[in-house]
Structures are given as structure tokens and as C-alpha cells.
Amino acid sequence: MNKYINKLIVMSAITMTGIMGMTSCTDYLDKAPESDYQENDPYKNFKNFQGFTEELYNCIPVVSNNKDAGHTC
User: Fold this and answer.
1) What pLDDT, on the 0 to 100 scale, is given for residue 42?
2) Are the CB atoms for 61 and 70 separated by under 8 Å?
3) PROSITE patterns, alphabetically (predicted)?
4) Is 71:59 a contact under the CB 8 Å cutoff?
């Protein structure tokens, strides 16, 4: 009886490993980009770089005693 249970556990583990190995996550990973910007757009010229950098300042948290102060990102 004990050998039967051990064999059942091993076969179940092998079956589950096989099933999980046959599925893929390519559909999950193939998503459209969330923005229309290309990765080199901020570095095309100084104006673009400055504009993208100024937008990053909104992500810096405001440290003060005011409870309503915080970051917007």
C-alpha cells in the first residue's frame, strides 16, 4: 500500500510538471506597449530630454508636515 501511494505521488508530480512545461506564457508576455513613445524619443534632442526630465519631477515625493502632500505617480 505504501509503495502504491509513493508511486502515485511520483507519477502525479511528473504529470503536473509535464503539463506545466507544455503551457507557455507567450500570450501573456506579448502585450502592446502602454505608450506611443519609442525608447530613444527622450534623447533625440535637448528639448525632448528636458521635457521628459521635467515630467519626472512629479514622481518625487513631497516631504512635509502636510498630510495632503505626496507624490502623484
Assistant:
1) 85
2) yes
3) PROKAR_LIPOPROTEIN
4) yes
Q: Which helix (H) or strand (E) holds 17?
A: helix 2-22
| Predicted confidence (pLDDT) per residue in 5-64, tens digit | 889 999 999 998 888 777 766 666 777 777 788 888 888 999 989 988 998 888 888 777
Nearest by Cα to 41 from 30, 33, 49: 49
Alpha helices, DSSP H only, in the chain? Answer: 2-22, 26-29, 46-56
Cell 508576455 belongs to which residue? Answer: 29
- Nearest 10 degrees: Cα torsion 22, 27, 28, 34: 160
